[in-house]
Write a structure and sequence with these properties.
Elements: H1 3-7, H2 11-19, H3 22-33, H4 39-46, H5 54-63, H6 70-80
Helix pairs in contact: 3-4
C-alpha cells in the first residue's frame, strides 16, 4: 500500500478545504514567492488547464506545507490524460 495515494491533494482541494479562495491563495503565494501570481493562473491550475512551472510547483509544495506536493501535479496530469 502506498501512503502518497492517501495523502495526495490537488491544489483545488487545498483551496476548497477552506484554506483560501483562489484570489487570496494567489496573493499569499505571490508574497511567499516575492512575485505576483495572478488569480487566473491559479484558476487554470485548479481546472487542470495548465501546470505551473517547476519552480512554482516547488514553492506551492513549501507554501502548503507539503499538502500539495510535486507528485500531486504528476498524478493530476496522468489522471487527466
Amino acid at each position: 500500500m502506498l501512503l502518497w495515494h492517501f495523502t495526495a491533494m490537488h491544489i483545488s482541494e487545498f483551496i476548497a478545504d477552506g484554506h483560501k479562495n483562489q484570489t487570496a491563495f494567489a496573493s499569499d503565494l505571490g508574497q511567499f514567492l516575492g512575485k505576483p501570481i495572478d488569480q487566473s493562473a491559479v484558476s487554470r491550475w485548479c481546472n487542470k488547464k495548465r501546470l505551473p512551472d517547476y519552480e512554482t510547483m516547488k514553492a506551492i509544495e513549501a507554501f502548503t506545507g507539503g499538502a500539495v506536493s510535486l507528485g500531486d501535479w504528476e498524478r493530476a496530469t496522468s489522471e487527466a490524460a
